[in-house]
Design brief:
4-stranded mixed sheet; alpha+beta; 5 helices; globular; 16% strand; metal-binding; 4 strands; iron-sulfur; 104 residues; Glutaredoxin
């Protein structure tokens, strides 16, 4: 299976997927930590996280998949949402909570 197929299955097979540095329990960068905190603040209990530091192919592949240069990257229902800055803006505007409401 190609890296693109692997990412596609993860994104489309899970309601909330966060590609991040580290894990939800132990984020390894501030942006990834903030992304996890935002999701928890929205009441999301089931987050599928992918630690991009464990696999260089995934780390580069997710950037190509989304055409987005930075990590973390959030996907909800197979759709790319954005990184931690976009997540924070959407959270503050109440938009992220609406997107996640059925998932919480």
């Amino acid at each position: 299976m190609s890296t693109h197929q692997q990412i596609d299955e993860l994104v489309k097979g899970n309601p909330v997927v966060l590609f991040m540095k580290g894990t939800a329990q132990f984020p390894q960068c501030g942006f990834s930590g903030r992304a996890v905190q935002i999701l928890k603040a929205c009441g999301v209990n089931q987050i599928t996280t992918v630690n991009v530091l464990e696999d260089p192919a995934i780390r580069q592949g997710i950037k190509d998949y989304s055409n987005w240069p930075t990590i973390p990257q959030l996907y909800i229902n197979g759709e790319f949402v954005g990184g931690s800055d976009i997540m924070m803006e959407m959270y503050q505007a109440g938009e992220l909570q609406q997107l996640l409401a059925p998932k919480a």
